[in-house]
Design a protein that fits this description.
Layout: H1 3-10, H2 20-31, H3 43-46, H4 54-59, H5 68-89, E1 94-99, E2 105-111, E3 114-121, H6 132-152, H7 154-157
Antiparallel strand pairs: 1-2, 2-3
Helix pairs in contact: 2-5, 5-6
Length: about 160
Amino acid sequence: MSEKAAIGIADMQVDPMRTPFLRSLISRIRAEDSFGVWENKPDLWLLRDYLVSREERRAIPLIGDPDPDILSRVEHFYQAVGLAIEQMSGLMASPMMKMSHEGFGRVILTTGRLVVFSKTLRDVHRFGFENIETLADEGMKSVRMALDVINEYPDVANA
């Protein structure tokens, strides 16, 4: 891992909007706006769909099928994790997600020949976070886990 990445991990106790993960997520969302409709919208407005209060989560049935918008949000979340990994390590991290129609599946991120992140996804139809801080923390936790694996197996990650 580069010196820049090591410094970045230590400094994550700052404004959540300045974390590499949220900057990547916002840029990923803005990249979808091919007509410039969201150009003047604030960053927090773009992240509103990722925020689900406890009351909203309780209102969502325990069993349900995720709609395409939710699947897209989950995919963007892990693409942003991959982008943040790339920014912090200099290695391209590619996400792959396989999801059933019932909202169960798996996401992995690979770098070189190394699987740097793997997570089983459940109840994707209820995907969301209580606040921006939690969203940033969960994203950066995934990034840190992947960077730890890269540091442990640098030869495989660079293969």
